[in-house]
Write a structure and sequence with these properties.
One of its GO terms (biological process) is synapse organization. Pfam families: Ig_3 (PF13927), V-set (PF07686). InterPro entries: Ig-like_dom (IPR007110), Ig-like_dom_sf (IPR036179), Ig-like_fold (IPR013783), Ig_sub (IPR003599), Ig_sub2 (IPR003598), Ig_V-set (IPR013106), Zig-8 (IPR037448). The protein has a six-stranded mixed β-sheet, with no helix packed on it. A five-stranded mixed β-sheet has the order 12-19-18-14-15, with no helix packed on it. The chain has a four-stranded antiparallel β-sheet with strand order 1-3-8-7, with no helix packed on it. The protein has two helices and 22 strands. By secondary structure, the chain is mainly beta. The chain is elongated and about 80 Å long. Among the domains are: 101 residues, Immunoglobulins (Immunoglobulin-like, Sandwich); 92 residues, Immunoglobulin-like. The termini are far apart. 7% of the residues lie in helices and 44% in strands. A hairpin with a 6-residue loop joins strand 7 and strand 8.
């Protein structure tokens, strides 16, 4: 047997060995959650790739998205990222939408082909301010609001508070503090010794999340029983009986008529000529 045949046989024997064949590194995460608007990254790591090609396939329609570093779809949000000499081939989806949720396959052009599946879930992150959507605070008490970023796979980089359309101004009024805990995805706004000018619409806006708002009313004097407990002790009218929320209240001297406007998602309703009977003292 001549030397050429010996070398050829050794090379063939080497490539037939299992460790020389491409295989997937299973240390990468294969269940990925991304939020709308933030890039989704699917990391596929292939060992012993050699001269084979790595492709990304969308499973639901078997659409080829990328081959190597080339994009094979008209949707330019999909891109393959690869650093020369590395084992990692990353599919990046820019500005993912819920419709992009599903299974994606990292495929290697061996014979037969081998593939690894990745499951992507794209969610809409939203903020929630704990408590009711409308709050009545007694003048001189503290306004205390807590906001949580829900369905956010990663802590928000920031959480801003707005009053109306403006960021809450710390310098314009003393007694305002904000405590944001990124790991728990929460932010607390405290406004000490509330006055009437602190009334308004407060909005919590985390990065990459839909915002949430609450309307705060700062009331001078004692709060009416109807506001505190959802009923009028004098006449037994349950304000919350049909899940009404108090939208507006005009206080008038004892012994005269009180007009209360109530709203719900489906019913608008006005109570007129309601005698106070000591609701204000």
């Amino acid at each position: 047997m001549d030397l050429l045949n010996i070398i050829s046989g050794e090379v063939q024997s080497y490539w037939e060995q299992p460790f020389a064949q491409p295989y997937f590194d299973n240390s990468t995460r294969r269940e990925i959650t991304a939020t709308v608007g933030q890039s989704a990254l699917l990391h596929c790591r292939v060992r012993n790739l050699g001269d084979r090609a790595v492709s990304w396939i969308r499973k639901r329609d078997l659409h080829i998205l990328t081959v190597g570093i080339l994009t094979y779809t008209n949707d330019q949000r999909f891109q393959s990222l690869h650093t020369e000499g590395s084992d990692e081939w990353t599919l990046r989806i820019t500005s993912p939408q819920p419709r992009d949720s599903g299974t994606y396959e990292c495929q290697v052009s061996t014979e037969p082909k081998i593939s690894q599946a990745f499951r992507l879930s794209v969610v809409v992150s939203r903020a929630k301010i704990l408590g009711n959507s409308e709050l009545f605070i007694k003048s001189g008490s503290d306004i205390n609001l807590t906001c949580v970023a829900l369905q956010s796979p990663a802590p928000p980089s920031f959480i801003y508070w707005y009053k109306g359309g403006r960021v809450v101004n710390y310098s314009q009024r003393g007694g305002i503090s904000v405590l944001t805990e990124r790991q728990t995805k929460t932010s607390k706004l405290v406004i000490a010794r509330a006055v009437a000018s602190d009334s308004g619409n407060y909005t919590c806006s985390p990065s990459s999340s839909d915002s949430a708002s609450v309307v705060v009313h700062v009331i001078n004097g004692e709060q009416p029983a109807a506001m505190q407990h959802g009923n009028s002790s004098a006449n037994g009218i349950l304000i919350n009986k049909h899940s009404f929320s108090l939208a507006y209240i005009a206080a008038v001297p004892v012994g005269t008529n009180l007009i209360i406007s109530l709203t719900s998602s489906s019913i608008g309703f006005v109570l007129k000529s309601f005698l106070l009977h000591g609701a204000y003292r």
